[in-house]
Amino acid sequence: MFSILGPSYRFCDGISRRSFLRIGGLAMGGLSLPQLLQAEAKTSSASRHKSVIMVFLSGGPPHQDMVDLKMDAPVEIRGEFRPVATRVPGIQICEHLPRLAATMDKWVVVRSLVGSEGRHASFQCHTGWPVAQQPPGGWPSLGSYVSKLKGPADPGIPPFVSLSPKMKGGPWADPGQAGFVGPAHAPFTPNANGAGAATLDSISVHRLSNRRALARQLDRLKQAANANGSLAGLDAYQEQAFSILTSGKLAEALDLEREDPQLRDRYGRGSPEPAGYGDAGPLLNDYFLAARRLVEAGARVVSLVYGRWDWHGRPHGTAFDNARDHLPALDQGLTALVEDLEARGMLDDVSIVVWGEFGRTPRINKNGGRDHWPNVGCALLAGGGMRTGQVIGATDRLGDHATERPVHFQDVLASLYHRLGLDINRVTVNDYAGRPRYLVDHTRYQPLAEVI
Amino acid sequence: MFSLQLVHTLTHPNAVYAVAFSPDGERLATASLDNTIKLWNAKAGQELARLRGHGDGVCGVAFSADGKRLFSASLDRTVRFWDATNGTSLTTVGGHADYIECFAVSADGKWLATGSHDKQIRVVSAESGSVKAVLAGHSDAVFSVALSADGMSLASGGNDDSLRVWNVESGKQRTLSGQDGVPQAVVFRHDDQVLFSGGSTGRIEAWNVATGERFMTLEGHRGLVKAVAISLDDAWLASGGSDATVRLWDAKSGAALAVADGHKNVVYGLAFSPSGQQLASASFDRTIKVWNIVEAGR
Q: What distance in Å separates residue A369's CA from the closest CA in chain B?
């Protein structure tokens, strides 16, 4: 990633601004601005575009304390929480997710997420693949593929936006790599330099529109990038980058002050500080609202990182202390998002996925925590016109492994591509070696028939 | 009849582990898993300063006897001394090989104690930071620690299910038997004759320190008792736990006096104001609540 404006850059008006605009996030799918405008003119409305909101629960959420409680397990496995009935007969989830329970008809619970490589990273949620043995250029993330294949829905809004803030743990903060589709399709990352506030308050975008100095900065960046070969074809994106910077739509979408305070309260607001000892995503419910505003404005994929779910126990609080803290906040934010999307008539166009890198150990450790458990995890899906109000898969009595309908990360991503209108059995993109690559390994993984 | 009437709800952006009043009762210090300490005007409930420097959560906090210094213990394995008037970090004391889990200060303000996941307890001078004692004997993490008024006796609870009383000078220890699981919290009465311990299944037990006999059990909490505190005049005992309640007891008779259920998560820390008229509770729900202790009809 390359900063357009370095930390010490001073505008000609003498005002120094710490920039967090990133050139990788200013991609436009290789299309010129006129082409884009023509393309959009052919669609009925930019607001009808299909999109995805990906909520990454950094650290590995505890499947057995959220959506797959094991009341028949021994006490050292069962945990402290009780299940509650949901709006869908036969489905029970944790007592600390009451709003999700009340709206379970809007959700799909995947209880059999498998295939985790057990690494603390967002990588597998973004790409479906393990970090090891990547093809030349690296695996693209969902948002980067979509940026490449669909381009922007609106010239003023990047197709792929990640709200991930800066963290000590880089693999958690990873907003999703562009891989072999090229850095032009990397996510726009407005919070990557900051503490997580989902706004562009610290930069005066309208002033940028009058500053041809920006173009000169881009030229200099291009020269530097070409010198090391990392940014081929930047010319094609320069005008589009400038369009994003100057349209004001992006800044508007990220400006939550424009929202009704009551709606912000319904989402839950939250804190921009790390949710766990200086190294985690924030428990910032404003992110959910920002995600809605971004997809409404034209973003095709918005990812966000939420909370710290790596609950190994004392002295950082037991798994249950932390769950009592995180679950109600997540419950509020997710249900507000679905409610809001539905109220705006957007729910069938916006797919939501909520997951982390793995599940957690069935056995509670001596410090009241649960450790990493790549054997099985969970995911939540909503919107996108999916058939909701159902559970997919099951685990054994201890929550140790999937016993029914194992669902791989790539099965979930295949479902999201399907909802975005991309045929995983046909669409390919060449890697840096020129080899065509499918969006997922379609010989093994397919969209979930239960939801499409 | 007594009640706990909520005066202030103060917040951190993460769980709050400990709270302390300044000796004059004018300020509060709060310690959080957000790696910081906050100083507050206790009467107004206004934040005065936020002290940064620890590299992990802060699990303990106390003022010096003159109120000019602040001491904090952190999961980053260190104890820090701060200038309480301007928030400057003065000294950092290390020594533990794993997380610090618990912290205590002697009533005379001269000694600090820390218990750690390294299974050891360290006692250091509150004046110089020099090590007075390193107490080894627990076979698992030390989850609770308390110092006698003069700092020469120490009580500890371990994840090894043991409750121990130590002579700090000699390092000799004895184990009190029959306690309620892992002692999650301990505190001495100010005359040092009685030790209170909070256990794993909700019981608070009172022990004769001299004989090791348990002579009283206070029941009411559901789940762990994570915090106990005693008023300066030894009249009242306060407790908090995983049931998110704060409870006030008659420390002599063991009678339950009041219950407050304003927290939404485990209560990890408690402190009486020097006047005994207020109680502050720190919770994993990211809040500190300040309560007036009110007697009906007064």
A: 14
